[in-house]
């Protein structure tokens, strides 16, 4: 499926953003220095993320993996966890290993070597927690692993300015806010669907 | 801890937690001439340099330390409900500013469930009015529900967003009353602050200061009146003497412990940390924790059910534009026996930004991969209504201490929550109404994302020391110089966003404490 806003680039507006926000958003374009995850773990996160967000662009996946690394490296930030589920750093790292073990057991191939449909099949089983017996992981813990990665990956992806442009999001809005907020009208700098709302 | 103002002295009052309630207390008490110190775990925010127009960055405003969350409907904590830093939850709240209705204070009498509050609407009425004036709440000329019918101090917001327009159109078609939202957001300049610029980032911290927070209103006033604010100071223990009175607060700053002596201690650390601190302060005089002779510290916590209903429209709605909530209805607020459940809810037309929508769709509705990408590519065509549903109190919904410790060596909180039968029926009714409204406006209902919002209860007020933790002035039944004053004293949750009620209770409590001095 295609963007309804081809040609719109939210980054073109960045001179209108406050310096703090501008710095935060531009950091998402790299380069990235990882603190925690090994190259193999980074590759695994990217491979899983590609399925979760349905997008294989390397630059974006690199940012997504970096965000996961940054969050897991912090001692805080989990907000909540179910009793019996390991802390997020351990949960994700062990989850990635288990995924690979499973790939080897079922398809005799490392996860990263599998074709897309097999990878997706394994990821989906994690979502359902159906790996119980062989992995030694409780159903609940598997589901939590899936949800943890899904949450981190999704929030990173929808924080990438390229993605903002594609979905037609106006992006940061300070100091400039919006004047035309009612139905059918847009401020001149907002994304417009081709052939619609000329900002009247 | 250099340059302490009251470091060596016994202050009149130490307030723990400077959120909605704590900051009001600090301000009112300082202005009444008391010597007060506020102890806040999080930073002293500077909106211009600490906030950003960015959802991911805004996670730093929340209480992100781990809590264990369990039950049939485990709560999402963190930015979903818990603020951290001077201003607490008001820094990232949406600014919807409702009074409770008179019926909310006597649910037992009227509906035969839950408990009555030991105070009535009339007890809070003067404080509601004062706070609305103080912070210049904007709202409609006529508010059709509850006991207060307007006008609000500042005119209602105008224009309203596409999402709010669609909501009002659907309501009108069905004969449902709706209004522009009452908001703690300026519609005209006040005290050097500008009116709202409709940037829509209220949950990320308002950078122009158009939205009220206690950080920008009550704290500056408190400081001017001589209060001391200690930020980045985590209270770890309430100190008690042999006579069973509290003597002060122990807190940790940059890894070192300090003590603040006080004649009176007020806990305003919100629904999870307040009970946790009381339980973690257990000592030989109070082995089950402070103020806990009833065994009810941490019990009867309540969120609001906060389900989001989305519909797709042919035209663009653009959920990201404008103050998130600009139109509301409370037509379904009061009990209507014909519906098969008691109590009710508010409906808020509620904007969104990409991360908020995508994350909840993924985590709470199981939408990911291609399906999520397709949804988001069209997200500008979706409108949304959010339920604020009353949740009845249940003993089993509670905060307890877990076996796990945090970095201070204190047991982490465990939070258990499950909806009851009445709650589920109410949610189903609310979702149906949202769908009807969106359909009547020309939309196609597309998606329901289960969610919850706000937290209340855990140290409820009451007249009977056996069935409540504090009295009608938020004074603990067990320890006369220990007060608990924040959202945790709520007896029932009401069907409306709670912060105006939190602040009204705080102001009333401050008046009471000042009158003792
Ligand atoms: C995203 C979001 C949107 C919301 N929107 C609305 C809305 O539109 N309308 C509305 O009415 N309400 C809204 N709320 C709810 C509102 O934020 C709360 O009702 C309100 O903040 C509760 O006030 P409080 O004083 O009880 O606690 P808080 O405001 O949470 O303050 C508690 C403070 O105590 C501090 N603290 C905790 N433990 C300690 C400790 N041990 N030592 C020192 N300090 C400590 C915390 O850091 C925090 O600053 C929203 C909340 C969220 C999260
Ligand atoms: S919408 Fe208005 S109140 Fe909300 S953050 Fe923006 S300027 Fe502040």
List the helices and strands and how they pair.
The complex is a heterodimer of chains A (200) and B (517).
Chain A: H1 19-26, H2 39-53, H3 58-73, E1 80-81, H4 88-107, H5 116-128, H6 132-135, H7 139-157, H8 161-167
Helix pairs in contact in A: 2-3, 2-7, 3-7, 4-5, 4-7, 5-7
Chain B: E1 10-16, H1 20-31, E2 36-39, H2 47-50, E3 67-70, H3 107-111, H4 121-135, H5 162-174, E4 179-180, H6 218-224, E5 228-230, E6 234-240, E7 246-253, E8 256-267, H7 270-280, E9 299-305, E10 308-312, E11 325-329, E12 345-350, H8 354-365, H9 370-377, E13 382-389, E14 398-405, E15 411-416, H10 421-440, E16 444-449, E17 452-458, E18 482-484, H11 499-516
Parallel strand pairs in B: 1-2, 1-8, 2-5, 3-15, 8-18
Antiparallel strand pairs in B: 4-11, 6-7, 7-8, 9-17, 10-13, 10-16, 11-12, 12-13, 14-15
Helix pairs in contact in B: 1-6, 1-11, 4-11, 5-10
Task: Please characterize this protein's 3D structure.
The complex is a heterodimer of chains A (200) and B (517). With 200 residues, chain A is mainly α. Chain A has a domain at 29-159. Chain A has helices at 19-26, 39-53, 58-73, 88-107, 116-128, 132-135, 139-157, 161-167; one strand at 80-81. In chain A, α3 (58-73) packs across α7. The mean pLDDT of chain A is 93. With 517 residues, chain B is an alpha/beta fold. Chain B has a single domain, classed as FAD/NAD(P)-binding domain (3-Layer(bba) Sandwich), CATH 3.50.50.60. Chain B is built from 11 helices and 18 strands. In chain B, strands 1, 2, 5, 6, 7, 8 and 18 form a 7-stranded mixed sheet that branches. A 6-stranded antiparallel sheet of chain B has the order 4-11-12-13-10-16. The longest helix of chain B is centred in the last third of the chain and has 20 residues, at 421-440. The model of chain B has no long low-confidence stretch (mean pLDDT 97). The chains are: A mainly alpha (200), B alpha/beta (517). Chains A and B meet through α1, α2, β1, α7 and α8 of A and α2, β3, α5, α8 and α9 of B. β1 (80-81) of chain A pairs parallel with β3 (67-70) of chain B, so a sheet runs across the interface. The structure holds flavin-adenine dinucleotide (FAD) and iron/sulfur cluster (SF4). Residues 185, 196-202, 206, 208, 210-211, 323 of chain B line the site of iron/sulfur cluster.
